[in-house]
Amino acid sequence: MLRILFESSDLAGFHSPSPDDHIKIFLPGQGEAAPAMRDFTPRAWNIEAGSFTLDFALHPKGPAVEWAHNARIGDTLEIGGPRGSNVAPSDFDWYLLVGDATALPSIARRMESLPGNTPVHVVALVAGPEEQPYLAPSPSQHVTWLHQAGSLAAGSSVADSTAGQLPRLLEAINHAKPPTGDGFIWVGAENTLARGIYRHVVDTLAHPPEWTKAAAYWSQGEADGGGSIS
Fold first, then answer.
1. What is the pLDDT of residues 97-135, one digit of tens each?
2. What is the model's pTM?
3. CATH number for domain 2-80, candidates 1.10.10.10, 2.40.30.10, 3.30.565.40, 1.10.760.10
4. Is 67 left (phi over 0), alpha (psi -120 to 50) or beta?
5. Nearest to residue 227, comparing CAs of 200, 190, 197?
């Protein structure tokens, strides 16, 4: 994960009430090409200081990662949003948060926003153990880490193996064993994974759809392929 701090005098009124809000960033195109647009979660912001933070998950390639790697002090970036927020109640008895590396900023914000004694279980699929320090669970929060790189077949890349991670994620979800009471399940991941997890949670585990939210944060092989699932 690569963190970049932005400063601007145009942040007055900026507001992001939901942990999974997204802003649209406009990445400069080559020559006369139109800017590439990508969605990102605002990780933190300070209106008085005129600053906000974005964390970039380091995919093997892509315009956002390329821009972040090459960014230097003084570079500029256009942003828009967030256009609207869907704020989940903070009074559920427990929470299950499932995501890949692109969802870690949203997961971290939700962990920080919930009451300190609320049971939270996170299932996170990341490239390797070097990404684990990103989350700082409280005593009532537990994180199950799945390392994608360690499960690759010879000659495969992390990106190539995305769809094959679904059984491991479902197994980890089945072993989460949430406490009694009403719970909220949130999912943010690659499109195929997020849809498979949502169907498993709602159809197999019979979790109420109205207490489940899933979103595709990206789609393998498709530019800007995210979107809401439920």
1. 999 999 999 999 999 999 989 999 999 999 999 999 999
2. 0.90
3. 2.40.30.10
4. alpha
5. 190
The amino acid at 65: V
Please choose, from the candidates 219, 182, 217, the residue with its C-alpha nearest in 3D space to the C-alpha of residue 88. 182
Please list the alpha-helical segments (H only) found in 76-139: 104-113
Tokens coding 217: 């944060």
Pick the CATH number of 94-228 from 3.30.1600.10, 3.40.50.80, 3.40.640.10, 3.40.50.300: 3.40.50.80
Q: List the beta bridge partners of residue 184.
A: 95
Among 7-11, 41-45, 181-185, the least confident range = 7-11
> CA 228, CA 85: separation in Å to the nearest integer?
12
One-letter amino acid at 137 equals: P
Bridge-based pairing state of the strands 2-7 and 51-56: antiparallel
Residues for the chain: how many in total?
A: 230
Amino acid at 153: A
Domain ranges in the chain with CATH number 2.40.30.10: 2-80
The Cα 7–Cα 204 span in angstroms is: 46
Per-residue DSSP letter, 191:
H
Burial of 29-56, coded b for 16+ CB within 10 Å and e otherwise, reads: eeeeeeebebbbbbbbbeeeeeebebbb
